[in-house]
Amino acid sequence: MRNGGVSFWWQQVGLPEPTDRLRGDAACDVVVVGGGLSGLWTAHYLHEADPTLDVRVVEAEFAGFGASGRNGGWLSSELPGSARAYADVAGEDGVTRLRAAVRSTVDEVIGVAAREGIDADIVRSGVLTVARSTAQSQRLGGELTAAQVAERVRVAGAVAGRFDPDCARVQPAKLVAGLARAVRERGVRIHEATRALAVEPGAVRTEHGTLRAPVVLRCLEGFTAGLAGHRREWLPMNSAIVVTEALTPSQWQEIGWSGQELLGDEAHAYCYAQRTADGRIAMGGRGVPYRFGSRTDVEGRTQDWTVESLRSTLTSLFPSLAGVGLDHAWCGVLGVPRDWSASVAYDPATGLGHAGGYVGSGLTATNLAGRTLRDLVLGHDTDLTRLPWTGHRVRRWEPEPLRWAGVHALYRLYRAADRREDAGLARTSAIARVADRVAGR
User: Where is the FAD dependent oxidoreductase domain (predicted)?
Assistant: First the structure.
């Protein structure tokens, strides 16, 4: 089994060589810091709206190196954060508007991919969420019975389920690579292998020179903590994925997964999975949730015990796959604000803006954020700029060692809650409610 190497998705298409490194000081109209989907969508929509703009992207490695090329491939309508946090700002109407905007974004991404000729194995197949205990079933509130779940996928121990049609399967590296190609073809320069050291009004200081611009947009998601002055802004939370060897037709028939729907569960330490285009199962979940001092990995290698934990989850869902081989494992980081809710902001007075904190729902939310940043930068008052995540402010995370201790305690509590519920507790464990309060969710 290969461990690391950025991700299985990138190994499928081949790791790109960084290009167009910044060489010395330069100037442009807009600098986007971060070459993931947030930055690339922002550059795409800004240049589409005004082709005269000199838009440049600064990326430490290569476009799509981070979570954009490592995620589980869920282009979903899931809200990127806490409905309660957004309701505190804009009421229930604001939450409803944000939910609708995210849901419509699924089709927006699919449409852009089609227009730009991006073949990312996209199938609008929906997502099946299953409950495997009474407590999970109460939280899920699903409309599917155990028998109806089994008609889609035969998950061991499933007692209920819910199906959301507004979700698509994606090969993440193909999507971000295709978007980077489309952005370059528009005339946007992506300065790869150019690490940003500091962001300030009117300039981005990098290891190879200073890029000056009246508009500077920070789109670093889980890597935000590596930027000077931002260590406690968003927590770099780790998530890990394993991918199996290609399953045989009889194995697929045994587990009854004949469609392309994505699969998740309602556990507190939840898992997420997809059936890949080449007939494998890619399954993800939490490993070591956080590294001391907001450190992030480089090449995506994950711990052996995390691999075994995900293998155990896979065979718990599908006992008939107990002997299946794992071909690849990797991990990446996502950005988590203190209230677990994403934000998009721009200050015309300073020219500084940002987008991120998607708490694991970034494959869709990045596109909506890019369009929102476009409207904010261009000074347009639109339905997007009035969404409740626009300008959303949240306090910083605690200093170390409180941050490390708190996050690790949090996930121990969630796993303990899952064990109690799996043992027969008929309601959501009080331990999980304590964990939610600690988390600020």
Answer: 29-376
The token pair that represents 431 in the structure block: 């331990």
Of the chain, the percentage scoring pLDDT greater than 90 comes to 86
* Separation CA 111–CA 107 (nearest Å): 6
Residues forming a β-bridge with 330: 241
Q: What are the backbone dihedrals phi and psi of residue 289, each rounded to the nearest 5 degrees, phi first?
A: -70, -25
Q: 45: which 2 tokens?
A: 């929509």
**What secondary structure does DSSP assign to 6-20, as a single string?**
S-HHHHHH-PPPP--
Q: Cα 397 vs. chain centroid, distance in angstroms?
A: 20
Q: Which residue type does 233 have?
A: E
* Average pLDDT taken over every residue of the chain: 95
Whole-number Cα distances in Å, 59 to 75, 127, 295, 313, 424: 23, 32, 18, 35, 49
124 by Cβ neighbours in 10 Å (0-12 / 13-18 / 19+) ranks as middle
Query: For the whole model, what pTM was predicted?
Result: 0.96
Find the largest Cα–Cα distance for the chain: 63
Residues 6+ positions from 144 with CB-CB distance below 8 Å: 160, 161, 162, 163
Q: Tokens representing 325?
A: 């081989």
| pLDDT over 90 at 269, yes or no | no
Give yes or no for residue 415 having a pLDDT over 80: yes
Between residues 89 and 147, which one has the greater pLDDT? 147
For 439, the token pair is 């988390």
d(CA 40, CA 185): 12
Which residues does residue 169 pair with via DSSP β-bridges, in sequence order?
74, 123
- H helices of 234-361, in order, are 249-255, 304-317
Q: Which residue in this structure is represented by tokens 């800004």?
A: 46
Cα distance between residue 8 and residue 35, in whole Å: 19
* Interatomic CA distance for residues 407 and 410, integer angstroms: 5
Distance CA 274, CA 106 (A): 17
- Strands (E) located in 222-280: 235-244, 262-265, 272-275
Question: CA-CA distance, 174 to 42, in Å (whole number)?
Answer: 18
Which residue shows structure tokens 């939280």? 139
**3-state SS class at 329:** strand
For the chain, what is the total number of helices (H) and then of strands (E)? 11, 21
Token pair listed for 344: 């998009």
Alpha carbon 64 to its chain's center: 12
